[in-house]
């Protein structure tokens, strides 16, 4: 039943699949080949929700995703943070000292350099994290292992030879849950927190100091802007679009005043979603993660 399906990009066992399990555990996860396919699955009614990664604490924003979100026609209804916990996995019966090579996506390989160097394991570039685990299961060769989420070992029947081997223990990926219909209601997060987030994209008018003037309303109204990024539109240097996250709900008086001031200095303004802040935000602010 499509109403109980959430789409994600990648093979089963990918970190996006883990995000689906963590934040929508009762829903069936639907793997898709690309981000476009993931979005289309929701637009075409094959899934009710999409789980899309937008940024990583180590490597920054996910390529192309900011271009896709405004054009997707979907709305952000939730966010989730997934710790990138990396496991070395091999065919059943393999011992760690038998492994000579490990396959994974280049980004993940770069996050385990210390472990790989200590154990004399060579890096092998694979299609992606879960896809590498699938390939290792197919080959059945003890000297060749995979680096992926522990979930991939569970799915493909591999043994976890070492876990928590990432160089940075706080590496985290932020995901957005997207839906065909917006949800503008005020609602608590999983731990009952009341902080709401609003995400929007905008383009400034072609006037001097337009960006400075456009953002002034957030400062004067005490609205916390947690993210602001710019990117070119259609490959044109003069066509710049901005992506922003702020704390608060559009109906909060300070937010409403700031958005009204922003609209005056912009040629376009589109709210992508209103959703509860993940509990990890408060922990990060308190220096506990």
TrEMBL record:
<feature type="domain" description="Prephenate dehydratase">
    <location>
        <begin position="5"/>
        <end position="180"/>
    </location>
</feature>
<comment type="pathway">
    <text>Amino-acid biosynthesis; L-phenylalanine biosynthesis; phenylpyruvate from prephenate: step 1/1.</text>
</comment>
<keyword id="KW-0057">Aromatic amino acid biosynthesis</keyword>
<dbReference type="InterPro" id="IPR018528">
    <property type="entry name" value="Preph_deHydtase_CS"/>
</dbReference>
<dbReference type="InterPro" id="IPR008242">
    <property type="entry name" value="Chor_mutase/pphenate_deHydtase"/>
</dbReference>
<dbReference type="InterPro" id="IPR002912">
    <property type="entry name" value="ACT_dom"/>
</dbReference>
<dbReference type="GO" id="GO:0005737">
    <property type="term" value="C:cytoplasm"/>
</dbReference>
<feature type="domain" description="ACT">
    <location>
        <begin position="199"/>
        <end position="276"/>
    </location>
</feature>
<keyword id="KW-0028">Amino-acid biosynthesis</keyword>
<dbReference type="GO" id="GO:0009094">
    <property type="term" value="P:L-phenylalanine biosynthetic process"/>
</dbReference>
<feature type="site" description="Essential for prephenate dehydratase activity">
    <location>
        <position position="173"/>
    </location>
</feature>
<dbReference type="InterPro" id="IPR045865">
    <property type="entry name" value="ACT-like_dom_sf"/>
</dbReference>
<keyword id="KW-0456">Lyase</keyword>
<dbReference type="InterPro" id="IPR001086">
    <property type="entry name" value="Preph_deHydtase"/>
</dbReference>
<dbReference type="Pfam" id="PF00800">
    <property type="entry name" value="PDT"/>
</dbReference>
<dbReference type="GO" id="GO:0004664">
    <property type="term" value="F:prephenate dehydratase activity"/>
</dbReference>
<protein>
    <recommendedName>
        <fullName>prephenate dehydratase</fullName>
        <ecNumber>4.2.1.51</ecNumber>
    </recommendedName>
</protein>
<keyword id="KW-0584">Phenylalanine biosynthesis</keyword>
């Amino acid at each position: 039943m499509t109403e109980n399906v959430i789409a994600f990009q990648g093979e089963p066992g990918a970190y996006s699949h883990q995000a689906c399990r963590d934040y929508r555990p009762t829903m069936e996860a639907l793997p898709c080949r690309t981000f476009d396919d993931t979005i289309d699955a929701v637009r075409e009614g094959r899934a009710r929700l999409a789980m899309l990664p937008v940024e990583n604490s180590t490597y920054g924003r996910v390529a192309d995703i900011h271009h896709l979100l405004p054009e997707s026609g979907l709305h952000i209804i939730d966010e989730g943070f997934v710790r990138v916990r990396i496991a070395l996995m091999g065919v059943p019966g393999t011992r760690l000292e038998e492994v000579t090579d490990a396959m994974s996506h280049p980004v993940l390989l770069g996050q385990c350099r210390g472990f790989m160097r200590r154990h004399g394991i060579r890096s092998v570039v694979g299609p992606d994290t879960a896809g590498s685990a699938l390939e290792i299961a197919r080959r059945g060769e003890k000297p060749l292992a995979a680096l992926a989420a522990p979930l991939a070992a569970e799915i493909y029947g591999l043994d976890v030879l070492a876990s928590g081997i990432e160089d940075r223990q706080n590496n985290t990926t932020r995901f957005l849950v997207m839906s065909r219909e917006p949800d503008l209601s005020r609602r608590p997060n999983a731990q009952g927190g009341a902080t709401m987030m609003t995400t929007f994209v905008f383009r400034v008018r072609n006037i001097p100091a337009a960006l400075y003037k456009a953002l002034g309303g957030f400062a004067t109204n005490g609205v916390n802007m947690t993210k602001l990024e710019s990117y070119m539109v259609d490959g044109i240097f003069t066509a710049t679009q901005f992506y922003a996250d702020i704390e608060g709900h559009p109906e909060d008086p300070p937010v409403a005043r700031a958005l009204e001031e922003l609209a005056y200095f912009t040629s376009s303004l589109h709210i992508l979603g209103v959703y509860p802040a993940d509990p990890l935000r408060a922990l990060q602010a308190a220096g506990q993660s």
